[in-house]
Amino acid sequence: MPTLRSASSGLQLPNKRPKSDSTTPSKKRSSSRFKETKATPQSDDAIGKIAQCKVISSPTTSRKRLYGDEPVQKVKWNPKDPAQMKAVKEALHVATVPSNVACRDTEQNIIFDFCKECFKKERSGSLYVCGCPGTGKTLSLQIVKSKLLTWSKEVGHDILDAVSINCTSLADTSEIFSKILENFEGTCNPCSPLQQLQCIFSKRQSLPPKMTLIIVDEMDYLITRDRSVLHDLFMLTTVPFSRCILIGIANAIDLADRFLPKLASLNCKPPVITFRAYSKDQIYEIIQERLKGLGYDVFDSLSLEFCARKVAAASGDMRKVLAVCRRAVELLEAEIRDSCELQEFHTVTFDLMDKALSKAFKPKNVDTI
Ligand SMILES: Nc1ncnc2c1ncn2[C@@H]1O[C@H](COP(=O)(O)OP(=O)(O)OP(=O)(O)O)[C@@H](O)[C@H]1O
Ligand SMILES: [Mg+2]
Q: What is the distance between the alpha carbons of residues 102 and 289, in angstroms, rounded to a whole number?
């Protein structure tokens, strides 16, 4: 068991929240191969106006002064309460969509602004989103999609159709075109789904009258020997009068370079948005944010810091972080169940987190030996 000293050496307890935009990837991930092409973000007028508003400072004789500056005491977590335990596990579950996505504002804003510009100008476009597993690509695109749908309603036009396809669900690579086509009505002519889509997107007056946002997740599943499926997909954004915005998501940084060389020669290679691996500060912030709504502390800050540091150094994968944190909570649950002492259990301690981490990072062959 590591001593507290070994754990805390070099650890800095985050006493202030790290900046959400400062993506400091782990050394492994920060190679120059991670190129980021900014997709001409446009400044949002509305946001600009809000930013210009001056904050009116509170008077010196504020309530804060009258009642003192002491921070509000958090309610203590009672892990023996089944309802509370359930809420904690749910907040740490990978399938739970968090109400607030921390540390991905920059990437989300770039994608949002890119799409907004395309919609405003009724112009097609494509983007390629890449990054290591568990870096919030799918989650961020879900958020951007729903923000865009809300925005399109707010501006008063029903201007947007949005389609999301995960390529792992396709039986065949070329099925991607029929999946997209399913979203358009009255398309049942003898042409192939791809030809029908080309026809739809290339006619000025024909359907769709709206802009269509197509999000293709796990795009690397579409790589074929001749790369034709990927190529044809991106070419949908280049046909004359196309109103299709295509966003491809995959792990490989160089997918566009390697598999879409023709697009580069046609000068329509999609800009690349890279989601860097999460740093320890970001991981810490994300977990805190996911648990904020509960109103009580689940982890000792030292234990959470330890987990963040370890996962950031290995991969920066949020899925791994969530799995380790859930495991640590389960260990606490088991400890409470097995204990006959009237001990007070309130938070996941460093030791429990250490056990959870050891299990997660144990070499694969240890079990078999
Ligand atoms: N910034 C964040 N805030 C809260 N939760 C996050 C954040 N980023 C990732 N997660 C969580 O981590 C898990 C993995 O995220 P996501 O599926 O978006 O990763 P990904 O980059 O698409 O991974 P993959 O390349 O494997 O598809 C999800 O449960 C998601 O809710
Ligand atoms: Mg994903």
A: 7
